[in-house]
Amino acid sequence: MIRFRTYFPGAITALSAAILLLAGCGDSTGLAKRYPVSGKVTYNGAPLAKGNINFIPTGTTESDRAATAPIEDGQYTLTTATENDGAFPGTYAVTITSTEVDLAEVKANMKGGSGRQDDVLRATRNAKSLIPTKYGLPDQSGLKAEVKSGSNRCDFELKD
Q1: What's the domain range around 52?
Q2: Which residues are registered as beta bridge partners of 153?
Q3: Looking at the predicted structure, is the pLDDT value of residue 18 above 50?
Q4: Distance between CA atoms of 139 and 22, rounded to whole angstroms?
Q5: Which of 30, 55, 156, 160 has its CA 20 to 30 A from that of 82?
């Protein structure tokens, strides 16, 4: 019987180091590399105060995964799997929504610190859109983006 440790004392150390090095590459999601995507969204020339942006793959990306981000003071940074990890290279249809939800009824009916589900659903359904609703529909928004290897900046100017 050959004792591995006796004949190859440095092999175990080298193998352990190689495994640790490989484990440090990439991220824990197991997904292909994503690239940073950020930008600015304006509406009628002013930064969009709040909203959400979605990058929806058009079939020419490395994955069928969408990337999303909240918009705050006109700025966004996309997330696919982990916070601010960006998007896969490829082309995307882009949607942007911005709504104002009236939570008065929810707050009036709160019990124990939380609102009733029906009240929240009604308030969300009746939310007022702060931008034209066409921007929330991928086939009507007219917004497109291409993500390439490296850092990406995608700005969008929305108008009435």
Answers
A1: 32-158
A2: 38
A3: no
A4: 42
A5: 156
